[in-house]
Amino acid sequence: MNITLDAIMDKILTLPGIVLALSMHEFAHAWMSDKLGDPTPRRQGRLTINPLAHIDWIGFAALLLVGFGWGKPVMIDPGYYKHRRRDEFLVRIAGVTMNLILAVIIAIPVRFVIKHYASVGPNALMENIIMILFYAVSINLVLMIFNLIPCPPLDGFGLVTQLFKLDKYDWWYPLYQRGTWILLLLIITNMTGRIISPAVSMLMNLLVY
Question: Which of 44, 60, 99, 190 has its CA at 20 to 30 Å from residue 23's CA atom?
Fold first, then answer.
């Protein structure tokens, strides 16, 4: 029973980090596209930090239950961009950059508190605050690494597409169309976990400990 309650409590403590990571990731995409001249995200109400505008509830549940997920994709119109390839790259990288920035900023107080926690003695409220912040760092890193996987429809595929001009090849569009199924296969076979877990562990050790 205690194990179940502990597991439920852990899930509750991850909620602020999940909401923050997903909503700010998608807001960053919307903000960057807007700055580059595309009014589409603003028209669709995505130029806001309100989580309700950005949360995909299936992606939210996936991040809560299996450790990685996604937000509601921001619709863009690259036709408005002055330098299409460069600007699409900037919009793609904005989301993962936001997650990295959040992870670094939140890790600062976490690292300080963990270092000095022993001197203040046991405190249930402090423990919960530390765990909320700790999970927020971890979740932002998970979302960043997950989205950098070069598989459609993730940002990583868009980044390598723009970097290496992959969309000029005949195989690009069929691969893009089948991307969701390929990603699902990677998740089922735990290939995503094998990529995400060591990368997040390394970054957590660097940022927090």
Answer: 190
